[in-house]
């Protein structure tokens, strides 16, 4: 009993922090204290999660291994990376931070359990909890009441998704008498042609696609995020993204593998549609956050296109692309935190006119991060793009390869518009002083990307050895 409580301690710390942030006594104007408490509790939970990485958090419902450690590290790292610049925003805007930090803990709690879940009922609960947290986060980010319609649409969609999860779980339990991953996989292998079972698995896949912000359920990651506050925008591009990919990969390999033949067309369609809509959508507006939100849809499509067969080689290649994408998009978000005017952080492309003249360091770093996102050598993003393209080429997916490269050219046009405005429009805009520490955060992120670029073999072999645990 005591041993189980010890292994449950990372979750206990997250729960305590969540309850304190949501229901405890708080000073609405003390954002520094709120973020300091959040950072301390998150580090403590992460440390214990690393120590007990190979232990079951909840006996019978979860598993612990190197795979879960890898995605947990990505999830906790994203949360910690988000807290630092977000504190700057909440302090400078004099905005209460407890709801934002509480939703972050709710996402990390549900995401961590989703990654290590070995039971479909727990997976359904974690996905539902994350949908609720995402909705609250969107409401928190709507401080100017500009996205009410989008928030209501997301609320309705989230409710429908939770209903689908409940129905699918009930169907699978009624058919099998258990929701354990291993038993469900065995049942699907025996009854792979049962349309009701296929529909239930399809419901779960649909919810995962929604949580990943992929087409055709991409509206949150595109239209709504363009007008949210900057910390919420950064949250959606980093934190749920890392957790849901981990849970989705486990779900497919542990349960859905027997019916991959039936799912192949849907997976291919979702991936190609995300690549196309993401690239074209990024070129369709003048809102810089909307451009990068659509970029997220595009890069999710590339990752899905790479891993959709869920072999070890496919997942390894897709994961390398995922982590390098997250480094680059984090760098871009930090750069956006470094450019503000009249106390507010900027949305429109026209607001960045002449930024290279007034903020040369931040503009140069943003240029490098965008080139890394595009996968151009010698930047680190090239390693991830090469891993994905190489996988497609080796498996003779040449039509997909040509389509992907064509869409890369389209999204490059969107990034060129940002570069043109920042570097080639001569307008001496007066920007506010850069918040302290932003330059250092950009520099450290750049150093990590350089290390990855110089030693890619350790990245590839190390991640592969951790991912292969799932295939044993």
What labels describe this entry?
single chain, about 475 residues, mainly alpha, about 75% helix, globular
Short description:
The chain is mainly α and 472 residues long. Helix content is 76%, strand content 1%. The chain has one domain.
Number of domains: 1
* Low-pLDDT windows of residues: none
Give the overall form.
globular
Helix tally?
20
* Overall average pLDDT: 86
Distance between the termini: 30 Å
Q: How do the strands of the widest beta sheet line up side by side?
A: 1-2
**Main sheet: strands, sense, barrel:** 2 strands, antiparallel
| Classification by helices and strands | mainly alpha
Strand % is under 5%
- The helix/strand series, from N terminus to C terminus, equals HHHHHHHHHHHHHHEEHHHHHH
What is the β-strand count? 2
Helix content: over 70%
What is the alpha-carbon Rg in Å? 21 Å
Q: Topology, please?
A:
Blueprint: H1 2-7, H2 9-23, H3 31-51, H4 66-93, H5 98-116, H6 120-141, H7 148-176, H8 181-190, H9 195-211, H10 220-224, H11 230-256, H12 260-282, H13 288-307, H14 312-337, E1 340-341, E2 344-345, H15 355-358, H16 360-374, H17 381-394, H18 398-424, H19 438-454, H20 456-467
Antiparallel strand pairs: 1-2
Helix pairs in contact: 2-3, 2-5, 3-4, 4-5, 4-11, 4-14, 4-20, 5-6, 5-11, 6-7, 6-9, 6-11, 7-9, 8-11, 9-11, 11-14, 12-13, 12-18, 13-14, 13-18, 14-16, 14-17, 14-19, 14-20, 16-18
């Amino acid at each position: 009993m005591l041993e189980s409580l010890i292994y449950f301690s990372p979750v206990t710390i997250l729960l305590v922090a969540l309850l304190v942030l949501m229901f405890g006594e708080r000073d609405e104007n003390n954002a520094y204290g709120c973020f300091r408490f959040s950072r301390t509790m998150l580090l403590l939970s992460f440390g214990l999660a690393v120590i007990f990485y190979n232990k079951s958090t909840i006996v019978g419902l979860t598993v612990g291994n190197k795979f879960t450690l890898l995605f947990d590290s990505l999830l906790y790292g994203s949360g910690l990376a988000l807290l630092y610049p977000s504190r700057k925003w909440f302090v400078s805007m004099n905005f209460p931070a407890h709801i934002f930090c509480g939703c972050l803990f709710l996402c990390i709690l549900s995401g961590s359990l989703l990654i290590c879940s070995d039971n479909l009922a727990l997976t359904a609960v974690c996905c539902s909890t994350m949908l609720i947290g995402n909705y609250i986060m969107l409401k928190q980010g709507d401080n100017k009441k500009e996205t009410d319609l989008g928030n209501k649409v997301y609320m309705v969609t989230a409710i429908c998704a939770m209903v689908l999860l409940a129905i699918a779980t009930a169907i699978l339990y009624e058919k099998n008498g258990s929701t354990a991953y291993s038993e469900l996989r065995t049942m699907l292998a025996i009854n792979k042609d049962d349309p009701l079972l296929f529909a239930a698995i399809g419901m779960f896949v649909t919810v995962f696609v929604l949580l990943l912000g992929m087409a055709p359920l991409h509206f949150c990651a595109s239209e709504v995020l363009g007008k949210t506050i900057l910390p919420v925008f950064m949250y959606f591009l980093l934190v749920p993204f890392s957790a849901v990919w981990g849970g989705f990969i486990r779900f497919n390999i542990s349960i859905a593998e027997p019916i991959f033949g039936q799912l192949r067309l849907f997976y291919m369609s979702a991936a190609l549609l995300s690549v196309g809509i993401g690239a074209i959508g990024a070129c369709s507006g003048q809102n810089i956050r909307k451009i990068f939100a659509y970029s997220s849809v595009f890069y999710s499509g590339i990752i899905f296109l790479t891993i959709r067969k869920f072999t070890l080689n496919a997942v390894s290649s897709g994961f390398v692309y995922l982590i390098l994408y997250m480094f680059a998009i984090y760098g871009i978000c930090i750069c956006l935190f470094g450019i503000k005017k009249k106390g507010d952080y900027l949305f429109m492309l026209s607001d960045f006119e002449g930024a290279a003249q007034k903020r040369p360091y931040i503009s140069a770093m943003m240029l490098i991060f965008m080139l890394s996102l595009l996968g151009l050598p010698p930047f680190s993003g090239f390693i991830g793009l090469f891993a994905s393209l190489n996988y497609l080429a080796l498996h003779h997916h040449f039509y997909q390869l040509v389509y992907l490269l064509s869409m890369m050219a389209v999204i490059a046009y969107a990034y060129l518009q940002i570069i043109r405005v920042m570097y080639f429009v001569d307008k001496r805009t007066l920007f506010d002083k850069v918040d302290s520490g932003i330059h250092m955060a950009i520099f450290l992120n750049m150093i990590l990307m350089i290390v990855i670029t110089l030693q890619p073999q350790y990245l590839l072999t190390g991640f592969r050895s951790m991912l292969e645990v799932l295939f044993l």
